[in-house]
Specification:
The structure holds two protein chains of two kinds. Chain A is mainly beta. Helix content of chain A is about 10%, strand content about 40%. Chain B is about 5% helix and about 50% strand. The chains are: A mainly beta, B mainly beta. At the A-B interface, strand 1, strand 7 and strand 16 of A face strand 26, strand 27, strand 28, strand 43 and strand 48 of B.
Chain lengths: ~300, ~900
Amino acid sequence: MRRLQMPALVALFSIGCGDSTLAQEWQLDRLRVLAVRATPAEPQPGELVSFDSLLYVPPDTTLDGVTWFGCIPEGDIGFGCELDTSVLEDFENIDPATASPEELAELFTQLQEAGFIGYEPGFDPMWQVPADALDGFTDAEKQEGVNAIVNITAIPAGAEDDEVELALKRVPVSLADTPNHNPDVTGIDISGAGFVGGTGTTADPYVLKAGGEMKLHPVIADDAVEDYTYLTSTGETESRTEEPYYAWYTDGGEFEQNISLPPYNYATYTAPKESGWSGIVVVVMRDRRGGMGWKQVTVTVE
Amino acid sequence: MDRSTLALCALLGGLFGTTDARAQDPEAPPADTEAEPLPITKPPELIDFVQAPYPADAEAAEVEGTVGLLVEISETGVVSKVEVLREAGYGFDEAAVEAVMKFTFTPAETEAGPVPVQVEFDYGFVLEEDPSEAVPPPATEAEADLPVAITGTLKEMGTRIPLADFQVTGTAADGTVATAQTDSAGRFALRGLPPGPASLRFAAPSYRDASAEVDVVEGEVADLTLWAKNLNYRDNEVVIVYKRKREPEITRRTLSVEEIKRVPGTFGDPVRVIQNLPGAARGPFGTGMLVIRGANPEDSNVYVDGIEVPLIYHLGGYRSVLNADMISSVDYLPGGYQVRYGQSTGGVIDVRTSDEYPERTELTWRTDFLDSGFHVATRVGKEKNIGFRAAARRSYIDAFIPIFASDTGFYVKPRWYDYQTKFNTLKKGRTQLSGFIFGFQDLLFLQTPDDFAQSEDQDTQGDLSATYSTHRAMLRLNHTFNDKLSLMVQPTLGVDDVALGLGSSIEITNKFTVFALRSELAWQAHETALLTAGVDANAIKYVIDFQIPFAPSSGDLDPTDEREDYRQVIEGWYLVPDPFLDLRWRPLGGSDKLLINPGIRLNTFKIGDNPALLGPDPRLAMRFQLTETTALKGGTGRYQQPPQGAEFGTDSDNLTINLERSWASEVGIEQQIGEAGSVDMTGFYKQLDRLIVFNPDYVDDTDPFYVNEGEGRIYGLEFMARRALVDKWFGWVSYTLSKSERNDYPSRSVEEGNVWYDYDFDQTHILTVLGGYRLPRDFEISGRFQYVTGNPFTPYAGGIFDLDGREYVLFPDADRNADRLPAYQALDLRIDKLFTFKSWQLEVYTDLLNVYRGENPEQVQYNYDGTEYEYVSGLPFIPSFGFQADITF
C-alpha cells in the first residue's frame, strides 16, 4: 500500500505565476444572482417564508423574470430541487386575464406541487414550510433541523437555456432554541487616499480619485453578529458567536480579493482610472448559518 | 633506502606440493585398525584467503618470518583445527593461526564423497617497501652500473592515478639522454645523468606533454612528481558498451549512470532520465510523479536496492532523493517484470546503489541553484567491493525566497535534505555483509499576510506546512553454500512520516513504521535451470491522526453546518507477506539463446481483523536470441495491487473492497547494431479490472463507499533507437504511441456511467530525441527535444451558484476528459566544461530549459463560474548553473 503522498499543492510553488485574464468573482459584468434572503432566516414547520434577492442586471440586459422553486430534498442536494419544469410551460400558456378562476386555481395547485413558489415580477416568492417537515425527528435532530432548498433562475430576455443564471439557497427548518436571523448591513465606509467624499447614495455617490486605492469597511447593525447555542454531538450545549464573512463586488475598478474576514473585515479597492465613471460597489454578508445581508452603494470617479 | 611496512603477503608454500593430505573418513575405523584410508580423488582448494595483520613487535623490529602449520579441513571445507608445527615467534604464530582458522576450502573428496583432511601449510610474513619511495630496477644490465640521478612518480592530473608503462626522458645540459619506463606504481629512475641542470619530459598520445627542470647533484638523488594531463578524462568514466547479463524481463532498460548524467533538463539526476524513455509519460507538473504506460502514478512502485520507497523525487520533482554518485544503475521496468516485484499494476523502478569502491578515496561536492551536497567513497583494503560511501544534500532556495518576497507578505519555503550511507564488509568465508542507511525530508511552508482571506473559512486561515520524511536502514547478507545454492537475506527497518498543518485548526499526521524482509534462496537445480524461492514481506504499523474542525462526511459538504472539532486516531497493522517462486530455464544446454522464465507470486494483503486479500500472480516471460544481435521477447502475466490510502475509508476493520487487478502482455524485438547501436520495439496490451471506484449506490454509512467495479485498458507501441556512449557521442530517440482508457461502471447502463473515457494520464504521443557530443578541451554539449500529447480534461460550461457556499457547482460540458491540453514541446540544452588540476577536477555546467520558451500548458484553470478557462503554463525559460568538484586523495 502506498502511503499518503505530499499533497499536490506542492505543485503550486512550481507553476510559473502570471496575471490571469479570467473574469474575477468580484466583477459584475453579466447577469448575476448575488444573494438571497429568507425571512424568517430559520423558520419552523408551518411558517410562511418570504424571499428577497439581490441581482445584478447589466445596463445592456433586460430581465424577463425570475422563477422560484422550493423543496425539502432527501439525501445530497446536488443541483437542488428536482423540478418538473413543464409546469412553467403550462403557466406561460395561461392568460390570467381570460382564464377562469378554476383554471388558475388548478394551475397554481400543479405549480405548487411541483415546488413552484414564485415568479418575479408578479408573484413574490413565498413558501409555506410543511407542518410535518420535522416529523419523526428526535428532539436533538429537531434542534439541528433540516435544509430546504430554494432554486432561483434569472432569465434574461431572449435567452437560450444555457444563458440563464441559476442559483440555489438553503433554508434551515428547525426548532432551534436560538433560531438564526439575517444580519443587517447598514453601510460601507471608505478610507484611504483614494477617497474624496460623498455618502454612497444615488443622489450623493461616493467620489473617488481616478486610480486611487482605498479600504472599504462594511458597517453592520449592532445585533448583526448573533450569539446562539449549539447542541454538540456529545449532547452538550455550547454558547457560540457567529463568524461572518463578506463578499465584495463592483462593476468597475478592482478588488484585491473577493472576500474579507474578521477581524480585519476590510477589502482593498482600486478605483477605475476613467474620470467620470459611475458604478456600484456591493458587499454581501453571510453569517454561515444561512443568513444574509447586503448593502449597495453608488460610486463615481472625479 | 627506507623500508616501511605497508603491505603483507603470505606465502602459500606450495600448498599442494607439500601437503600430506590424509583422508579421514568419519565413518572409517580408527587408525590403529587395519583399514586403509581411501585415496584422495580431489584435493581441497582454497576459496577464501584471510590476510593476517602484521604483528606490531615484528614490524617494529623489521623482522620477517614463516610459520609452519598443520591445518585440519573438515568435510564441509571449514577449517576445524590449526596446529603450529614450526614457530616463528614475534607474534607471527598467533596471527597466522587466527587467520588460517578463517580460511575456507572446497572439501577434499574420495570416491566415497567429501572427507576431512590435514594439510601442511606455510604462512609467511614479508615486509614490503613503500612503493612511493621504491627505486625501480634498471631495465638493462648496462644501466645497472650507472648511478641513479633522478627518481620520480608519474601521475595523472586531477585523478592522481599513477601512470604505469610510460616512458620518461631526461636530457642533461651536455646532451646526455636517459630514459626510463614507469613501473606499476608510476615510479621511474633515470640513471647516468651528469651533475648539472637536466630536463625531464613525458609525452604520450593521450596526454598533454609534461616537463620539469631538475638540478642533478653528485652523490644525491633528486625525487619529484611529474603531472600529466589526460586529454580525454571522460574516457575514464565511460562504460564502453553497457552489456548486461541478459534477463528475460521483456522491457528492462538499465541505464549506466555515466552515460545519462549529462542529459539536459535532468540536473544531473539519473532517476529523472527515466522521463526520457519509452513508456514514461509526463507526470503532473511540479509533483515529480511518474506516469508509466498511462497508469496512475500510485500504481507504480519505486525501489532502492530492493527496498520499496514511497517517493523517489523531492518537492517539485526536480531532484531524486538519492545523490547521483551513490547510484550505479537505474532499472526501469514499464511492464512485464517478474515476480520479485509485486503489489503494483503499473511499472517498477529499481534504483541500485554502487557496490564498487574506488581505489583511492574520492570526494565530490556539487552545487547548483537548488541545493548543495557531497559524496565520499573509499575502499577498505584492495578488493573493489569492500568499502564505505556516504552522501548528504540540503536545499537552500528557502533561504532566498523570503529575501525577495518579504515586502508582499506572501512567500513559499520549499526545503529538502537527504542522506545516504552504505558499506560492504569483508567477506567472511562465503558470507558477505552490506548495509545501507538512507533518508530524506521535504518541507513546504506557505505564508500569507494576516489580513489575506485564504478562504471564507476562519479555520483555514494561517500558514500551511506540509512535511514528508522517509528513513530506511537495511542490512543485506549474501551467503553462498556452494556453487549451486546461495541465499540472500535483507531485513529493513524504516519510518515514513507525513504531516499537514493549516493554521491552528487543521493537523493531519500519518506515521508508518515499516518492517520489511526480502529474502531469496537460489538453487541451480540443473545446469539449465535456476530456481529461486523468495519472500518480499512487509509489516507496517500505521498511525493516522486527524485533527480537523469538522467531521468528515461522505456526502456533500454543507457550508451552513455547525463546525465541531473532530479528532480521530486510526492505528493498526497491515501485512504484506508475499512469497514467490521464480524459475529461469535455459533449455538449450544452459545457453542464453533461449530463456524461459515462469514465476508465481502470491500478493497478500491483510489489514486489521479483515480476512487477507489474496491475489496469485502467475507470469511468464521468454527471450529468444534469434541471432547474435537479434532477440525476440514476449511475456504475459497477472499483476495485482491493494487499495490505496483513502480507499480504505476511516473504518479499516470493515474492508469491503478487493485487490485491483490487471493482465498484461508484451511482445518485442531487440536489434543490436554494431558495437554501440541498438533498436528496440515493444507492443503491449494491459487489461485492468476490479478497479476501485465510488459506489453509485451509496446512501449512508451502511453502504460501502468504494466498490471494485471499474475496468481499464492500456495498449500501445514503444520504440527506442539508441547509441551508447563509446567515444564522443551518445543519444537516443524514444517514441511511444499509446492509449489508456477507463470505464468506471461497465456493468451498468450508460445513464449510470457505463462510458469508456480517456484516462486522466493518457498521452497518445510521447517523443524524445536527445544526444550529447564531446568537444575538444573537455567541453561537452547535449540537447533534448520533447513532444508530448497534452493531458485530457473535462470541459465545463457554467454551473449553479450555491449562495451559501459562495461557489458554483459546475456542469460538465461533455463527456469526461473529452478535451485535451495543447501538446507539450520543449528544447533543453546543456553545456559542460571540465577543468583539471593536479589533485582535483572541477566541472561547471549550464542547463538551459525550454530554450524557445514554449508555453506548455500544464493544467486548465476555470474562472469562478466555469464559463471561461485559461491554461496555466509551467516554468518559462530557466537557466540553471552548477558546479561539481571531484577530489581524489
